[in-house]
Design brief:
Chain A: Pfam families: STAS. The structure holds 2 protein chains of 2 kinds. Chain A is of the alpha/beta class. Chain A is built from 9 helices and 5 strands. Classes of the chains: A alpha/beta, B alpha+beta. The interface between A and B is medium-sized, with 20 and 24 residues.
């Protein structure tokens, strides 16, 4: 049995499971019992692989199965709302349990040390994998949210027959401008609008790149035969733009969306008239 | 004039997504010393300009945000350090409308007008360091 020190663990699977469960419970994990099913499955698969393959744990095909299983467990734990700490604790406690069992089984210090060393190498590697799986689960959520935000953050609103408005909230970077421009130009075609209002009340700062993007958007709308008004320029933004030396004089700009709408009405020769009260 | 640093932090900038958090940090520093909205906007616009340069020309780098005081006034100092190719002719780069990229060419000269103190050091092949300071009532 010289070449399979860890194989002996398989014979003491039940004992190991009891110890593991106990450590998990002691560590403050409330549901040591709840996950018993998957823990059992993992332990039995892991131990039988250890028993079967001699020494070449890392490369064997069975080992990949074990890794898939533990990755699956940890990502499902991630989704169920376990903290990263609890997730790491799961395998650490398994390692602890294995070490305990090993120290009872192997009497010679040298062999015990050797066995522990191997066990550490295997389980540490697994721990890294579970952590990666855990992080990846979270990152997937974040990137999905980014997509969603950029999709919903550029709503083009038809405010009047022939007038579309696009409120921009947040930072205008290159990719964002691209989406803004695309949806605005498409909406102009779809609605046959001749005036587009770009409202930048929600843009925290206008630097030269943002200004350049705005100028490009305005030029593109003009090419489509529509006129573009930029509204929502706050006093501090106006001063900053002047200091930066950006020339926006070729663009119709307004302080508020309301005044932009008024200008748009004038351009379309529309008038808002108060209705006379009919006295009977 | 000697200035005292009260508070300091560093941020690594490697991608475009780092710009917004950095700008928010700088803004927080401005808010903490009671900077007016106008000066806050000028400061974050200047930061935004320079950090974009840092990414575009310097290929990313380090930004140091400091809360400074010169005895009479408090201010925020931001230092942008990159290890990019450097600027060949600083005098030319500081001119309005000059750009090696396809931008408006207002970043550096515009930024200088937005802040109170502006210092640029660049060595070809060794990167560029830009330091800006905005005083609370500057």
């Amino acid at each position: 049995m010289q070449n399979n020190l860890l194989g002996v663990l398989k014979e003491h699977e039940n004992k190991l499971l009891t110890i593991w469960s106990q450590i998990l419970l002691d560590g403050g994990s409330e549901d040591g019992a709840m996950e018993e099913e998957e823990s059992k499955e993992f332990a039995s698969l892991f131990l039988s692989v250890l028993a079967k393959s001699d020494e070449k744990y890392e490369n064997s095909q069975e080992f990949e199965k074990v890794q898939d299983l533990i990755v699956g467990i940890s990502s499902s734990r991630g989704k169920r709302g376990f903290s990263p700490r609890e997730n790491a604790q799961y395998l650490i406690s398994f390692k602890e349990a294995c070490s305990q069992v090993l120290s009872e089984l192997i009497q010679e210090p040298e062999k015990l040390y050797d066995a522990n060393l191997k066990l550490n190498a295997i389980l540490d590697n697994m721990m890294i994998m579970t952590f990666e799986a855990f992080m990846k689960g979270r990152e997937d959520v974040i990137s999905r949210q980014i997509d969603e935000i950029s999709e919903i953050s550029t709503p083009v609103i038809t405010v009047w027959d022939g007038i579309v408005a696009l409120p921009i909230i947040g930072t205008l970077d290159s990719s964002r401008t691209q989406t803004v421009m695309e949806s605005l130009l498409q909406q102009i075609v779809d609605t046959g609008s001749s005036i587009a209002i770009l409202d930048i009340s929600g843009v925290p700062a206008v630097d030269s790149l943002v200004a350049q993007h705005l100028i490009k958007t305005v030029s593109a709308t003009r090419l489509m035969g529509a006129e573009c008004i930029i509204s929502g320029i706050r006093p501090e933004i106006a001063q900053t733009v002047v200091h930066l030396g950006i020339d926006l004089s070729g663009i119709t700009t307004k302080a508020s969306l309301a005044s932009a709408l008024q200008t748009a009405f004038e351009m379309l020769q529309l008038a808002v008239v108060k209705r006379k009260k009919i006295v009977e | 004039m000697t200035t005292i640093t009260n508070n300091k932090e560093e941020a690594l900038i490697v991608k475009e997504q780092d710009v917004v958090p950095l700008r928010n940090r700088v803004k927080e520093y401005g808010v903490k010393i009671g900077m007016s909205i106008l000066n806050q906007t000028k400061l974050i616009t200047a930061t935004s300009e320079l950090v974009r340069n840092l990414l575009k020309y310097g290929g990313g780098g380090k930004v140091i945000i400091e809360s400074v005081s010169n005895g009479r006034e408090n201010g925020v100092r931001v230092t942008f350090i990159d290890n990019g190719p450097g600027i060949a002719d600083i005098e030319l780069a500081m001119k309005d409308g000059y750009s090696t990229g396809k931008s408006l060419g207002l970043g550096l000269p515009g930024t200088k007008r937005l802040v109170n103190e502006f210092d640029i050091k660049s060595e070809l092949g060794n990167g560029t360091t830009v330091t800006i300071t905005k005083w609370k009532n500057g």
